[in-house]
Amino acid sequence: MSTLQISLAIIGGLVLAGVVAYNAWVTSKSAPRTASERPGLDGAGEPQSFESPLTGPVIEPDHDGISERIEPVMGHPFEAPREPEPPVAVDGEARVPVVVPVTLNNVVSPPEKRPGLDALIDVITPLAVEGPVSGDALLAALPGTRRVGSKPFAVEGLNETSGEWESPRPGQRYHALQAGVQLANRAGALNDIEFSEFVVKAQAFADAVGAAPDFPDMRAEVARARELDAFASGHDAQLGFMLRARRSAWSPGYVAQNAARLGFVAGVLPGRMVLPASAAGQAPILSLAFDSQAAMAEDPEQSALREVALSLEVTHVPRSEQPFVRMRQAAAALAEAMEGVITDDGGQLLSTDTMDGIGADLESLYDALDSHDLSAGSPQARRLFS
To answer: For the region Disordered, what residue ranges are annotated (predicted)?
Structure first.
């Protein structure tokens, strides 16, 4: 073999090796980032504080102005929260979380007690009875559906033992009854047709248990419903940030691992995580969502995500939880850890000034809700804005 042939063979081999190396590099760069697991770590990593160096100190929002519409907006249902698992310390090493299974439907804590009828947001009709009625009889007489049009319908009894209004329970006795329907929710105000349906449903229940209803004036209640709906429409707020990958895509496990460091736990639905509230029975503070099909894939670690949504139901979370401050900090921490950027739904980058303006608007919104006895996170607010 001549020197020329040997040289050409060497050059060809080098070119081929270069092509293979380049293809391997491109493949590795395009593959989604996956979660890492440290051997010997038995429990979940410690949720990171929102006052850690990664996220910076708590930012106090301003108190100026309010806008009729707060952007960016996203709407997501919320699951009931559960407490995060206890952290596990690793002496002498940084605390690293294990892979969080995002397809597992975790057990979540239900609300401690269902909110009762409230004259502020409900039409309430007293049902007079001649004597105590058993809870079993009341349950048997309840209508098959607990809705009137798009509004919740409820019956309560005054418990003979505890002296409190509650939904009928077996084995209890009640010496007073009342039926109610919600005045307004996100579907709109109670209208004439729905009020008439409420009267029919409540009358049928009263006849079944031998009670005499005392219905309020329809016109007055429908007018009250419209007034409440007008207030709610002008003070509803659902905020959403988008986290978009700048370089490599993310796997569901990678997203879940980084979110778990901030205290997020898996929600009821695949592809959803929540930041639990500090009190049991309260709505989650924040919700983190991504493609549910990617979360349910046969091999989720090979699924590529280029964006995740971080959302806040403003009216469902108490002001004392500082939800928007924590939302900003969570978004900043995730963006830094996963090499992403924070945008609105349209892909527009959100500046610090824009977020400061939203925070100021929210403070005014909280004040308006408080002045109408519909404080954010209260049972009344959560029912009205649902």
So the answer is: 31-60
Return d(Cα 234, Cα 135) in angstroms, integer. Answer: 40
Q: Which backbone phi and psi does 124 adopt, to 5 degrees? A: -120, 125
286: phi then psi, degrees, rounded to nearest 5: -135, 160
Contact 85, 386 (CB under 8 A): no
Q: Is residue 214 part of a domain?
A: yes
Q: How far is CA 120 from CA 113, 178, 224, 379, in A?
A: 19, 15, 10, 11
Question: CB neighbours (10 Å) of residue 264?
Answer: 27
Where in the sequence is the domain holding 222, given as residue range(s)?
Answer: 122-233
Tokens of 96: 């690293």
- In the predicted structure, residue 132 carries a pLDDT above the cut 70: yes
| Cβ neighbours for 331, distance < 8 A, ≥ 6 positions apart | 241, 243, 310, 342
186 within some domain = yes
Neighbours of 189 (CB within 10 A): 21
Look at residue 284 and tell me whether its pLDDT is greater than 60: yes
79-93 pLDDT tens trace: 444 444 444 444 444
Give the helix, strand, coil percentages of the chain, each rounded to 5.
35, 20, 45
Q: Are 250 and 300 in contact (CB under 8 A)?
A: no
Q: How far, in Å, CA of 375 to CA of 112, rounded?
A: 19
Split into its structural domains, the chain has a count of 1
Residue 269, pLDDT > 60, answer yes
The torsion angles phi and psi of 366, rounded to 5 degrees, stand at -60, -40
Exposed/middle/buried for 300, CB within 10 Å: 0-12, 13-18, 19+? buried
Please, where are the H alpha helices in the chain? 3-30, 135-141, 192-209, 218-234, 252-261, 292-295, 323-338, 352-371, 379-384
Please state, in angstroms and rounded to a whole number, the distance separating the CA atoms of residues 353 and 56: 17
Q: How far, in Å, CA of 149 to CA of 195, rounded?
A: 9
Question: Counting beta carbons within 10 angstroms of the beta carbon of residue 365, is it exposed (0 to 12), middle (13 to 18) or buried (19 or more)?
Answer: buried
Between CA 136 and CA 128 the distance in angstroms is 18
